[in-house]
Automatic annotation (TrEMBL), chain A:
Record's subcellular location: Cell membrane
Protein name: Carbohydrate ABC transporter permease
InterPro entries per UniProt: ABC_transporter_permease, MetI-like, MetI-like_sf
SUPFAM superfamilies reported for this sequence: MetI-like
Topology within the bilayer: Multi-pass membrane protein
Record keyword Transmembrane present: yes
Phylogenetic classification of the source organism: Bacteria, Bacillati, Actinomycetota, Actinomycetes, Kitasatosporales
Transmembrane segment boundaries: 21-44, 82-103, 115-137, 166-188, 228-251, 271-292
Keyword Membrane: yes
Automatic annotation (TrEMBL), chain B:
Span of domain ABC transmembrane type-1: 68-259
Family: Belongs to the binding-protein-dependent transport system permease family.
Subcellular location: Cell membrane
Transmembrane domains' residue ranges: 12-33, 73-96, 103-127, 139-159, 192-214, 234-256
Membrane topology: Multi-pass membrane protein
Protein name: Carbohydrate ABC transporter permease
Presence of keyword Ribosomal protein: no
Domain of life: Bacteria
Alphabetical list of PANTHER family matching this protein: ABC TRANSPORTER PERMEASE PROTEIN MG189-RELATED, ABC TRANSPORTER PERMEASE PROTEIN MG189-RELATED-RELATED
Main location as per UniProt: membrane
Amino acid sequence: MTPSTAGPRPAARPRLWLTAFSFQLPALLLFGLLVLLPILYALYTSAFRWGGFGAPTDYTGADNFLRLFQDPVFLGDLWRCLVLVVLSLAFQLPFALAMAVLLNQRLRGRAVYRMLFFAPYVLSEVVTGVLFTMIFAPGEGLADHVLDAVGLTGLGGGWFSDRSTVLGTLFLVMTWKYFGFHMMLYLAALQSVPRELTEAAIVDGAGPWQRFRGITLPLLGPTLRISVFLSVIGAIQLFDLVWVTTAGGPVHSSETMAVTMFQYGFKRYQVGYASAISVVMFAISLVFAVAYQRFVLRRDLAGATTTMRGGGR
Amino acid sequence: MRRIVRALSPHAVLVTVGAVMAVPLLYAVLSGFKSTDQLSRNPVGLPAPWVTENYTGVLGSAGFWRLVGNSTLVAVGSTVVVVAVSALAAFAFARFAFRGRELLFTLFTMGLMFPFAVAVLPLFLLLRSMGLLDNPLGVILPQAAFGLPVTIVILRGFFREIPGELEEAATLDGCGPFGFFWRILLPMARPALGTVSVLAVVGSWNNFFLPLLVFNDPSWWTLPVGVQQFQGQYAADTARVCAYLVLAMVPALAFYSLAERQLVGGITAGATKG
């Protein structure tokens, strides 16, 4: 690197740009080649009937997409995605919040609980999935034995192998694995709530519920919104856990978009059609992400993007 | 009386939830100490007698250690790449006001929202055409690429907090941009680098989709792929699968207990620094 003899700012402008850009170059290459290019390539191949070998030649325009939106399995994927999102927002996140509030108090063993609740997040989806296929094995798994022991024989049994219970079972496993992650986010936010605020509220005679509604919840707002966002994106791309536990079965009743895509792309060699699924998944997450940013996260991000030094233009 | 109920109930709730969380793990550990025959006769209680063959069998197999080795190689490789490349990029985002910065940064933050599953099929085709199947680089590079957004966002946040006077002082002492980056910024940002490294290691260690597709050759399989195959192979031998599963959990849990603070710090920083 040559020592800088030129004056600081004005003369150095083009060189500044060049330096900044050269710092960015490796990241841009990696990101462009392995993240953006594949997404564009999927867009291209989704317009072909193509088995994945040789160059795609059988151009079919939007046919794959038309077929997709008449495919009961794919429509089912969308429905199941929605069900999992609703279940997560209605049960998993409130549960995580409740646990965070509990653990935010001074309690004996708090650190141990925190470790224990968060630990499943560190395990891989595969390990979790295999563990719970054994626990929910009909008749012989731990879950059925526990139900037997408390006199609820016959209540279990189906779990992953029954069309009517498989999604619920999957949701239980998802909650076991992921609620700790959301709880940690909330805990971090709770710990930054200024203590004077709660103390003042106590002095004013606010009960625990009022304090929660009036202080904690509003201050947690930004974190809750991020956690909802991550939860939805997670449901859109759910694959590992499903693949290991049920592979989408029985009869597609736990299939997700990513599983359907995998089936067509890697098992049935209908790569053009599978690309169309990728594109739709991408479109859904993009529309959701942009809309969410625009309408929900807006106020949270307002400060973050405008406080940069100098300003971009 | 009311006071006792009040003081007790959070504990009661936590103990219950804690039990639900711990039981699956304990079940796996204990089942690993049973024979499969014993497991079917005595699925819930303590092992009687304690059988250690399942665990010693897995620990004595070369296959298991190769999986651990492969997972380590892939995790370390992708972590080094993603942290190095992100640090350079985050430095430019944090310290330079250059044209197009907002646009580029938006591009990377958009990456936070792209499900990996979306790109995996075309990515596979691309890797195949580049001859990177059955090559660790075929997992390391994409893993690093998909880790860029979150790493850049977190590091940029940290880099911005380092005072500008420091940069001026370094410039006066004859440091160029790279010299400042290398000799001053990176050493100062060591905690932040640790945090993003832990996130990257955990992400890579647990990745299943990519190694499943890229590695056809069993000698390259990583731990998650190996666990899935092992379960398929020994489906009838439940106790042995349990032992395998427990041993596959150990590295992740050990790493977690060592790096808990960094991991949690990274997650909360990643989620709140937009």
